[in-house]
Amino acid sequence: MRFRFIFYILLIATSNLIWAQVDTNRTDTPQPGESIGTFLIRKGYDPSVFKKEFIELNKSKLGKENTLLLGVRYTLPEKPADDVAVEPLLGESNKFVKIENHSLRGATYYLVSGHGGPDPGAMSKLNNHDLCEDEYAYDIMLRLARQLLAWGAKVHIIIQDPDDGIRDDAYLGYDNHETCMNEVIPLDQIQRLRQRCKAINNLFATERNGYCRAIFMHLDSRSIKERIDIFLYHYQKSVKGESLANTMRETFEKKYKQHQPNRGFSGTVSERNLYVLKESNPPAVFLELGNIQNAQDQQRFLKASNREAVAKWMADGILEEFKNRNKK
Question: Among 85, 89, 291, 326, which one is most buried in terms of CB atoms within 10 A?
Fold first, then answer.
C-alpha cells in the first residue's frame, strides 16, 4: 500500500511538471514598448489571426485600452497543427480548417461577396423574414473560402463581417457590419466598387507572379416567376477569366446532371463590361447565383446544405481550371 501511495504521488507530480512545462511554453512577459501585435509577432503568431483570442485569454491582466504590462506573464493562444489553416472570419467553430491536400498550392484567390455595409443588395421577403443578397452571398463565399483553404490555396476575403462566420440558419439576419478589409464601405456605388478593386489590386501587386484569380458573387433579382440557373460573366479582354468561367459552368452542368438528371442546366457564360471585372487586375469571374425573388431559387440559398453544395461545386470548377491551366 505504501508503494502504491508513493507511486501515485510521483505520478501526480510528474503530470503537474508536464503541464507546467506546457504552460511555460505558452506564456511569456512582454519587452519594454511592446504592443500586443509586436508581442505576438515576436512569439511567432499572426496578430490578424490571434489578437482577439489573446485579449480574451488575458483580459484580466491587460492595462487600459488592452495595453501590455511589464512583468506580467501572459498566456499565448494554442497554435493549430501544421496541417491546419486558420481563418477567424469563418466563425469560432469553423476557423480551423484542416488541410485535406495541396492540390491548390500556389494559387491565390480574392473572394468578394456582393454589396455589404450600408447596401444589402437585392431583397425579398419570405414568412415575414427579409432575405438580403449580401448575407447569403457572404455565407456562400465563406464556404467557398473554407474549401479552397482545405485544398491548400491562399485566400483573401475582401468583404468581411467578423460577427457572422458560416451560419446554418435558413434566415440570415441582416446587419451592416461588413467592411472592405477593415475599411468602412461607402454608400455611393462607384466608390464602393472602386474600394474593393483597390483592395484586390494592392494585394495582387505583391502576388502577381503567381496564379491569382478574383471571384465576385451576387444574387440576382428578377420576376418572381423567373427561375434561373447560375450565370457567369468575364471581362471581354480576359482570356484567363473566360477560361475560369467556362470551366466553372461546365462543372455546374456536370453536377446538375449527376444530382438532378431530369432538370437540365441553362446557366451561361458571357462577356460583361462590369466595373469590377474591368478594374480588377487579376483575371476575374462574376457569378449570379440565382433569383432571390423566385421560390424555387430561394431554396438554393435558404438551405445550408444547398449553400454548401453551391460553394463546393464552385470550388470543384476552380480546382479543375487550376489543374488544367497549362493545357489551354
Answer: 291
Task: Count CB neighbours of 6 within 10 A.
Answer: 10
CB 73 within 8 A of CB 83: no
C-alpha dist (Å) from residue 229 to 31, 266, 284, 285: 57, 6, 20, 16
Q: What CA dihedral angle connects 198, 203, 205 and 208, to 10 degrees?
A: -130
Three-state secondary structure readout of 22-65: HHHHCEECCCCCCCHHHHHHHCCCCHHHHHHHHHHHHHHHCCHH
CB-based contact 196:276 (threshold 8 Å): yes
pLDDT tens digits, one per residue of 40-67: 999 988 887 789 889 999 999 999 999 9
Rounded distance, CA 142 to CA 159, Å? 10
Grid coordinates standing for 270? Answer: 458571357
Instruction: Say which residues have a Cβ less than 8 Å from residue 184's Cβ, sequence separation at least 6.
Output: 117
Cα–Cα distance for residue pair 271/2, rounded to 1 Å: 84
Cβ neighbours of residue 313 under 8 Å, at least 6 residues apart? 251, 252, 255
**154-157 β-sheet, strand order:** 154-157, 107-113, 211-220, 284-291, 231-234, 269-271
Q: What is the mean pLDDT of residues 24-35?
A: 88
What is the distance of C-alpha 144 from the center of its chain?
7
* Full DSSP string of 96-125: EEE----TTTTEEEEEEES-BTTB--SEEE
The position carrying cell 487600459 is 64
The yes-or-no verdict on residue 13 having pLDDT over 50 is no
pLDDT tens per residue across span 109-148: 999 999 999 999 999 999 999 999 999 999 999 999 999 9
Q: How many CA atoms lie within 13 A of 248 on its CB side?
A: 32
Residue pair 284/214 in contact (Cβ under 8 Å)? The answer is yes
Q: Classify burial at 290, counting beta carbons within 10 Å of its beta carbon; exposed 0-12, middle 13-18, buried 19 or more.
A: buried
| pTM exceeding 0.90 | no
